[in-house]
Amino acid sequence: MSDRYSILVVEDDALIAMELGERLQDMGYDVLGPAATVAEAQSLCAGRKPDAALLDSNLAGVSSTELAASLAGQGVPVAFCTGYDSIKNLPPELQAAPILTKPIADAELLKVLKQLIV
After folding, report:
1. Does domain 6-116 correspond to CATH entry 3.40.50.720?
2. Residue-wise pLDDT tens digits, 24-73
3. Secondary structure of the chain in HEC code, one letter for each residue
4. Which of 67, 73, 114, 116 is deepest in the core (most CB within 10 A)?
5. CB within 8 A of 33, min separation 6: which ones?
């Protein structure tokens, strides 16, 4: 069992997912995923609860907010990674979730991860 924090990566763009995963590993995190769909993310989490999750807000036209709410309900802090400035229809429990705008700088990514994992 690793003593490193695990970060669930949910991203439907394979290149972005791979690059984000590599950056997280370089920063000393374990990567759970990446998952390209909500169903894939749920099955990954069935075996292991991540310490935090980075979710693309739009997965091939499907919103990830329900997944985020489900994770938050299990005590997993979430942040959204998106090309948009804001995310529509966020439930109240996710109003405070950090939103990282792509492309995400390492310093910004690290700062948000440190906020999520306290």
Report:
1. no
2. 999 999 999 999 999 999 999 998 999 999 999 999 999 999 999 999 99
3. CCCCCEEEEECCCHHHHHHHHHHHHHCCCEEEEEECCHHHHHHHHHHCCCCEEEEECEECCEECHHHHHHHHHCCCCEEEEECCCCCCCCCHHHCCCCEEECCCCHHHHHHHHHHHCC
4. 67
5. 8, 9, 10, 11, 17, 21, 40, 41, 44
